[in-house]
Amino acid sequence: VLCLTIIGIPFGVQSIKLGLATFTPFGKEVVEHDNANSVLRVVFNLVWLIFFGWEIALAHLVSALVLTITIIGIPFAKQHIKLIPLALIPFGRSLEHSVKTTPSVNSAVAA
Fold it and tell me: Which residue has the higher pLDDT, 91 or 104?
């Protein structure tokens, strides 16, 4: 619905991004881009927060609380908690694969 107007297209794209992030959140982390705090993105984030973001963040919070009832749901609850900041201020941020660095065997031997 948001993509039906020219004004709504950026908000529609963020909705799609959040939907995809909710679909596959494991192994990813929220990353802030270099120009995340530009004036236009701050204005868009404020409009998003007022009209859409708080509802989506509240839905993630309630889902996380419900999922923590069972042991099996705890990892899913952690993913919902991770998505709350992205739901509140999505412009200039994205969910990208996290790169976990493990110390290599050669560096441990050299030390």
Answer: 91
